[in-house]
Predict the structure.
Amino acid sequence: MKVFKKKGTAYVALFTALVFLFGVFASGCGGGDTQTADEDSIKVGVNFELSGEVATYGTSCKNGIMLAFEEVNEQGGVLGKKIEALVQDNKSQNREARNIAERLISDGVVAILGPAVTGAVQSEEPVATAAKVPILAPAATAPEVTFDEKTNKVKDFVFRVCIIDPDQSQVMANYIYDELGLKNGAIMVDKNNDYSVGLGETFKEFFTAKGGKIVAEEGFISTDTAFKPQLTSIAAKKPDFIYVPAYYNQVGLIVKQARELGIDLPFMGADGWDSPKLVELAGAENLNKCYFTNHYSVEDPSERIQNFIKAYEEKYNATPDAFAALGYDTAYLLVEAIKQAGEADSVKIQQALENIEGFEGVTGKLSYDEKHNPIKEISIIEVVDGKQKLIKKMQPDK
Amino acid sequence: MKKYLSTLIICLVLAVFFVVVQLGINNGFITGYWVTNLYLVGINVILASSLNLINGFTGEFSLGHAGFMAVGAYSGAIITANLGLPFPLAVIVGMLAAGLTGVLVGLPTLRLRGDYLAIATLGFGEIVRVVLMNIDYVGGASGLRDIPFVVNWPIIFFSVVLSLLLIRNFICSSHGRACLSVRENDLAAEMMGINITYYKVLAFVIGAALAGLAGVLYAHYYTVLQPRDFSFMLTFDVLVMVMVGGLGSLTGSVVGAVLITVASAFLQSIPELRMVIYALLLIISAVFRPQGLLGEKEVSLKILQKLGGVFNGAVGSKQTH
Amino acid sequence: MTDLLQQLLNGLSQGSIYALIAVGYTMIYGIIQLINFAHGDVIMVGAYVALGCALMGLGFIPSLAVAMLTCAILGVIIERVAYRRVRPVSRLAALTSAIGVSLFLEYTMMYFLGADIRTFPAGFFPERTYSLWGITINNKDLLVLGTTLVLVIILQYIIYRTRTGKAMRAVSFDGQAAQLMGVNVNSTVAITFFIGSAMAAAAGLLYGIYFNTVQPLMGLMPGLKAFIAAVLGGIGSVPGAMLGGILLGMTESLVAGFGGSMYRDAVAFIILILVLLIRPTGLLGKGVQEKV
């Protein structure tokens, strides 16, 4: 009996070992392709921050995209097919952004729109590149999103619709130095946010290269609400202006608290300022003498922009911000690429995107340079009594 | 003899599971999204069981798991991404670094009483995050990028199995018994000649090192690390898994981690509701089952046998009718 | 020199906000030895209720009253549902439950009202800035500081001069003995939560006005900071909470004002850990004596 049992265990052990071996061999073999295309519709992934800390940007982008797809589908779709948007929320988390990209790709999307912020796009990029599905990022502004500086290679499957950080900070540096004639600046960045840090660093480079001086640099964290200590120490260094390239929810508080401290300096910023909430948070009179760079302006009289604003206000009962406009353009850019590709195939769409020339969007005319960055004009906007006023459009020097 | 048999059965089940999943991945039967979730389950099992070792078995309420995970993830990623050294070294360094941090944090703070310790460890986790945000070598707020993508199913599978084995053997050893005695009554334990600080710190360090392992796996799967990935919400997620599975139940932690990860995947489209459900789970388990939803019981073959017996009995009784 | 004074003043106003929150925190801890993790989120609920009143056109005082009453009831419900059963069983289960309540309030609010920042309507609280020798102070600062002082005095009066206060001190000293002496422990704890949560609502409204923001996660960080302030001042001691809050605010302000803004939160947590290790009773705590 004993011997038999021992034999039994030996067999079991042998079997286990065999199964393991088999598994290890199996892991060496390749996988098959099981995706099948749906004939009636073109599936597009929409992966955005609909909850969590940057939910407002993601939601705006998504609203812009959905408006555009609705318009396209009303006019009969593209290549005779309707567009089916698979909307997913990545909770403002990089890991979720990637999980969702996986999910969308296994659902058979031809392209992924989003997410909004840089880190999330970078997290999903390896997945999309491996599956050869193009990403269209409406608002990821960091240069590294589309271009790897270490290997000097373009990320073939990532395209963006927004202008990149250095272009924005350069235009603002030029405007401040040349046109406003201010020479001594202070910088205050959100250290928790790579977008803000990136803009701050490049602004400093451009501004000092022109001969300007940065007399104070301060930081804060996105969750901060009290900025008076930093503002007090900035004011002590007597700058002519304060550059705060951060999102509106902090900028609003910063400007308000600065005015409470009696600091009457002009504030400058970037596209993260663009939201109706900014005026609510800071108060209209406090925002006078504030300027920011943006992709477009709601005050722009061009017909394309005004039609978009009207349609958006009708659908969502709100004024679109820059994120909504970028989302809207991203969706139309994809539609254009599908048309030019002549087929809803992700690789062909990628090729069509590479060759896009002079695409007319709400946020300007778009062509891609060799690093997949759009060459576009940048609007400089002044806030006057709580209303945005378009000062001028500038091209970054190349 | 029976003991060997049950061990073998477990091995066999694990082996079959391993192979079936591996085949599924290779044949594209398990799609990319579910592969991600599978890996996430693995990482969460390690996190939950190691937090349970501290909170459930030793009775020290730690909320610093996100911090230890961050330490492991970052130090592992420095090894591969910044220094270009191989992945196994990253695992070792990540675990050592997290374990060492465990010693540094544990030695002073473990003197604190339960809820003070909870807040102090929570504070530690936040300090780690703020410090990482200020170190340019690891990318500051924008984080570490281009970490090599190494993690695959065998790595996850064996990490999980080995971690669980380590914790199980620790609990069943005399060290583990000492830890349990510290949890039940530290004064009595001390009277019995048990060096309670030693055992508290020991369990704390093992838990921290395993959290570090989870961090290394996380880093080499997601390939991007940012300090804000490791906020205390992550610790709360793990805490939910532990509470659902049962404080002081290893198999419970596994079940909890699997349930919560899968539930979270299904609740993707309604994230606020997901958190509301988590919150309710925490309250309900704390109020009605302070030892966790599954309590301290372990799921073992014996229970299965019992269940089988009941089932057979039921079937049998039906047949007689 | 004016800079330093201005920084200290910034710290004082920031600190009085911490103090305002910490006062309620410390009172609840003093009675039942439970870290009411959800205290910060009761503040958030209070701010939302006050905001709702303000949007319906109610004035400052009526909004404050409605918010305080709502939160007081909410506090009693939280205690009844989430804490009463667990408190005697296990402190850790109670803490877990408190974390659950905190998450529940945050995400229920987010589910129904969204994550957007909201602001009080312009003119709800007319703001004024005073300037003196190069130092500026806002009437909001004075309001917060004044409210905190008044609350501390009222609380000290309730605790040391009323029958309820006597019962609270008795429960805090020894719950079982108090029960034997005829104190109704459950209702005393409920009253504590009633008062503590009403104060949280007041803090919420003032916080909302002070920073002009109301959002679902607004209570999280201030709640933690207030806890640190309470520990620093000696947890359970009401004047201690005020002292601790102001000290913490000033420390943070000096750290942030002189180049360490990134480490502001870390410094607060380091203070917490140091106090716990070196002097767990805090500045004004007196061991296990009368702590309320």
Residues 309-321 of chain B have pLDDT under 50 and may be disordered. The longest helix of chain B spans residues 196-222. Chain B has one domain: 24-295.
